[in-house]
Amino acid sequence: MFGLAKKKEETAQVDKTAADVTYVPAVDITEGEAGYTIFADVPGANKDSVSVTFEDGVVTLRAQSATEGQGADLIRREFRFANYERSFRVSDDVDAEKISAEIANGVLQVTLPRKASAKKTIPVNVK
């Protein structure tokens, strides 16, 4: 039937090496008064396959696509499992304790809030 059995074997061999490939996800980075936001394109990734770490002033995003035919016999595979990784050095004004991340529709959003400002206006009194 359409030569699918042969394609299944060929595709299975290609899949073994596809898991070894790590892609650099495309990102948009915005800056506002409250801090920075990174939007990373990680298609096929979900909450369980994503990690965000912050160490020594570097935020690292890692994800793995989770595309797999659940509960069905695979007869052809063109979608590949993919690993994604990208790191960014961030400024000292980021509050590491308040970094947050969420994922929706294949887009990972990492929010890096600024530390509370140390700048203070000192009132001048008259004597």
Task: Explain how this protein is built.
By secondary structure, the chain is mostly beta strands. The chain has one helix spanning 4-18; strands spanning 22-23, 27-32, 35-41, 50-55, 58-64, 83-89, 100-104, 107-113. It is elongated. The model is unreliable at 1-17 (pLDDT under 50).
Name the helix and strand elements from N-terminus to C-terminus, one letter apiece: HEEEEEEEE
Shape: elongated
Mean pLDDT: 82
Q: Going across the major beta sheet, what is the strand order?
A: 1-6-5-4
Instruction: Give helix % range.
Output: 10-25%
The total count of helices amounts to 1
Coarse structural class: mainly beta
Topology:
Blueprint: H1 4-18, E1 22-23, E2 27-32, E3 35-41, E4 50-55, E5 58-64, E6 83-89, E7 100-104, E8 107-113
Parallel strand pairs: 1-6
Antiparallel strand pairs: 2-3, 3-8, 4-5, 5-6, 7-8
